[in-house]
Amino acid sequence: MGSSGFSWKLADHPKLPKGKTVALVVLDGWGEAKADQYNCIHIAETPVMDSLKKGAPEKWRLVRAHGTAVGLPTEDDMGNSEVGHNALGAGRIFAQGAKLVDLALASGKIYDGPGFNYIKECFASGTLHLIGLLSDGGVHSRLDQLQLLLKGAGERGAKRIRVHILTDGRDVLDGSSVGFVETLENDLAEIRAKGIDAQIASGGGRMYVTMDRYENDWNVIKRGWDAQVLGEAPHKFKSAVEAVKALRATGANDQYLPPFVIVDDSGKAVGPIVDGDAVVTFNFRADRMVMIAKSLEYADFDKFDRVRVPKIRYAGMLQYDGELKLPSNYLVSPPEIERTSGEYLVHNGVRTFACSETVKFGHVTFFWNGNRSGYFNPEMEEYVEIPSDVGITFNVKPNMKAIEIAEKARDAILSRKFDQVRVNLPNGDMVGHTGDIEATIVACKAADQAVKMILDAIEQVGGIFVVTADHGNAEDMVKRSKSGQPLLDKNGNIQILTSHTLEPVPIAIGGPGLAPGVRFRKDVPQGGLANVAATVMNLHGFEAPSDYEQTLIEVVD
């Protein structure tokens, strides 16, 4: 930090001592929801987590782990492991998703980054294709961001641009697609007046073309692929306005418009994706972009026959999956976060050990430390990665590496070489994503056993524990109606939910080293993951920096 007068030195906490070993356990994908047969955490044998919940009410509470609590735009945005660990480690809430894109576009920074420079290589001889939701709903994308991106790409050398639109009608009024297409057509006409060949090339409704999620129906992606890449669709039109009006006249609504391509006077598609082209998916929200990203990026893709796989440069607006590193190129980088709790604590003599298995190792290190690789001080820190199982889905071995992680944590605690021992137990999330309820129940039990091993070690050294989570997943494994009832498919079977949830997550504190009188405050009812950092700093015997979200604990005499 170059600012004058800045100091890494933290003030001593007036009532809490230093020198206690603090174990910080993050249960990945472990939310709190009503108890029923689809709540794998409830069904599983989890005696340790149950005892924390029922044991001391002033030492267990819920915190928010989605939406604005983790920097996402709306309360309808599920949390995820990346933003969750950012918040846990940073102690403050940083813009994520749409806000991040707004900042990058407003500053022009988006055009200076490696992602834009990667796709720009194709501008001289290839076409720039933009694929995404044409809407001002602000949930998955925003029209004004697309307009700025079109303008910026044109000013930076794009000679030929094709837009592949997905109509909304879900986050905005049904029928509003016609107005959005007319607006975009006017924008493209202005771009053409500057000598750039810019057109709409294809389209379709978001729920029928391209924007499926959680690998629910790969046919949705295939319809998009056929129109966008192959230039083939059952409906062909000379203009997108004509296409949307005509298809709506047949009774289709915006969400379910069938795929169409725009053709020239000879009936040839005006914008299939071919070798040497650049492709950007411009949605900022991740969940409905992961499947198309896989089809565009993976060489060994096998979910449907792609027929022709063009050699392209592909980037997402953001990286849609931090665990899969998908896509590998993206226009807007994660937020730049400095002065994280980890860096402060190392500067104040707190020796740190962090461990998880491969799929979540980056979360307790890179994302925890503000999207920063490596150690702050290698003499004060040790990070251990346990290789995850490969070549199988996680429901095949739902115990994953929970016990191995716990053993490393136990040994680190008992060695007394570390003041903080931080782990992520991935089971609830990674097995939850498979949709296998029985396996997820096993996964939750394994995570609970791992927690026991860590808490037993803390007991032996007279330390303190903090057990929390990063977002929900395993606590609700079924899709639900607005009234909360499980949804059934056409065969009468329940529709499995493989995604994260909007549920809050638990945080529990305890251990023999916890000073008498420490309890959760009652005046932070909306506390979220970002409040955890100040809490942990207090338990290490320090006051948190003044700009951190407030601590969750107080000390009563």
TrEMBL record:
Pfam families, per the entry: iPGM_N, Metalloenzyme
Similarity remark: Belongs to the BPG-independent phosphoglycerate mutase family.
CC cofactor: Mn(2+)
Record-level GO BP terms: glucose catabolic process; glycolytic process; response to blue light; response to carbon dioxide; stomatal movement
Keyword Transcription regulation: no
Pathway(s) this gene product operates in, as recorded in its UniProt entry: Carbohydrate degradation; glycolysis; pyruvate from D-glyceraldehyde 3-phosphate: step 3/5
Catalytic residues, chain numbering: 81
Gene3D superfamilies linked to this entry: Alkaline Phosphatase, subunit A (3.40.720.10), BPG-independent phosphoglycerate mutase, domain B (3.40.1450.10)
Protein name: phosphoglycerate mutase (2,3-diphosphoglycerate-independent)
Job description of the protein: Catalyzes the interconversion of 2-phosphoglycerate (2-PGA) and 3-phosphoglycerate (3-PGA). Required for guard cell function (e.g. blue light-, abscisic acid- (ABA), and low CO(2)-regulated stomatal movements) and fertility (e.g. pollen grains production).
Domain of life, per lineage: Eukaryota
Catalytic activities: (2R)-2-phosphoglycerate = (2R)-3-phosphoglycerate
Domain Metalloenzyme: 20-543
UniProt-listed Enzyme Commission number(s): 5.4.2.12
Chain ranges of the BPG-independent PGAM N-terminal domain: 102-321
Binding locations of Mn(2+) 2: 28, 81, 470-471
